[in-house]
Write a structure and sequence with these properties.
12 helices, 28% helix, Aspartate Aminotransferase, domain 1, three-stranded antiparallel sheet, NamZ_N, NamZ_C
Length: 400
């Protein structure tokens, strides 16, 4: 399998339109070639590419900032001598000054296939800026490690945020290049846009189902995205960021597990199995103990649940991470009706809204969890139509 970056580097004809133009790169630590050379270094070594600037998304070009809502500064690359502008610092959108440093922006970011992962919002923002300033954007496409399945509620009008760029479900099942096409169509952007597509990506093929396990090394696109298991679970476990439960930050398996000092994990699993066993297909749940070294419940022994999605119990088509995590919340609410579950803080600088609602693009998931008599069918009744509508809507933008 070849990524868009590898194809661009190996094919002079693909690079020909870049000759004589100033080129910038939007990337992060996982922006690498097949031999793990960073895209900045690989592109700078091309004699027919004039690299003049770079941009970094959340967590920075270097990927050095662990937690969410930690801002990165601008800096000058010490080897290449070019400015590296932060799109998660003083600004979220590129300034006019930054836009003046290039003619063509190459977007080379490994995404996780989830609406809340902020790289896709950054893509929308740079497309809007490129339309305003008459710049060209190329996406050097990469695999969606979560594959093609779709799941979750669609973001509702008025709930747009840095973790909600547009009306799509939590697990969108598209590549970054495909999403760029959808953004341009959805927001009616007049921008010179091109996707340098992948060769040989087979999102339905095992064992990777989106990620070419035997062909490409996994590199964290953000500090707490350490492996494919996390990428598969993330469309569900990301909701933990809006709760008082630990999502495993401060452990070696972040965003594959959840827990707290005051829950009985075995009882939670049993309640999940009793309430909606049909939602648990495709993965294996295991009760665990852990003590976070930082973040929520730091230094405190927690009882929790790990979601296993890499072994013989994994079924890619059947696995529904968003529903599994929603079911865990429901089980905790049923076992502990007064549990202080929802975390109240300005998530991604959104004030006056509960974090769990910002994450889900509306209050419907939280309201379902908190409603005493709600059933699994009640959540399916509002979610399945969203999922079906998205599967139909995205068809004309799929490239693979």
């Amino acid at each position: 399998m070849k990524t868009g970056l590898d194809r661009l580097l190996s094919d002079p004809e693909l690079r020909a339109p870049l000759k004589g133009r100033r080129v910038a790169v939007l990337g992060h630590p996982a922006s690498v070639t097949a031999d793990l050379t960073h895209s900045l270094d690989a592109l700078a070594a091309c004699p027919d590419i004039r690299l003049t600037a770079a941009f970094g998304p959340q967590h920075g070009m270097r990927g050095d900032l662990q937690d969410n809502m930690m801002e990165s500064p601008d800096f000058t690359d010490p080897r290449l001598g070019i400015p590296v502008f932060s799109l998660y610092g003083e600004v979220r959108r590129p300034t006019g000054q930054a836009m003046g440093t290039f003619d063509v922006l190459l977007v080379d970011m490994q995404d996780l296939g989830c609406r809340i992962y902020t790289f896709i919002t950054t893509l929308l923002y740079v497309l809007e800026a490129a339309a305003e300033h008459g710049k060209t954007v190329w996406v050097l496409d990469r695999p969606n490690p979560a594959g093609r399945p779709v799941e979750g509620l669609t973001l509702r009008p008025g709930w747009e945020s840095f973790v909600g760029a547009g009306p799509m479900p939590m697990r969108h099942g598209m590549t970054l290049g495909e999403l760029g096409l959808w953004f341009i169509d959805r927001f009616k952007l007049d921008v010179d846009y091109r996707v340098i597509g992948m060769e040989g990506w087979e999102p339905e093929a095992g064992p990777g189902y989106g990620w070419p396990l035997l062909e490409r090394e996994w590199i964290n696109p953000s500090p707490n995205a350490p492996n494919v298991s996390m990428a598969r679970a993330y469309a569900g476990t990301v909701m933990l960021e809006g709760t008082t439960l630990s999502e495993g930050r401060g452990t070696t398996r972040p965003l594959e597990l959840f827990g707290a000092p005051d829950i009985d994990a075995r009882a939670v699993i049993a309640e999940m199995q009793a309430f909606a066993p049909e939602w648990l297909a495709g993965c294996t749940l295991r009760d665990i103990w852990f003590e976070p070294t930082f973040h929520k419940h730091v230094g405190t022994l927690c009882n929790g649940v790990q979601m296993h999605v890499a072994g013989p119990g994994y079924d890619h088509a059947a696995f529904k991470p968003w529903r599994v995590q929603a079911l865990a919340f429901k089980a905790i609410r049923r076992l502990y009706p007064d549990y202080d579950l929802w975390r109240d803080f300005p998530y991604e600088y959104e004030f006056g809204k509960l974090a769990i609602d910002v994450i889900n693009g509306g209050p419907a998931l939280r309201e379902w969890v908190d409603a005493p008599g709600s059933t699994a069918s009640d959540l399916d009744a509002i979610t399945v139509p969203d999922e079906q509508a998205w599967i139909e809507e995205r068809k004309r933008f799929l490239l693979y």
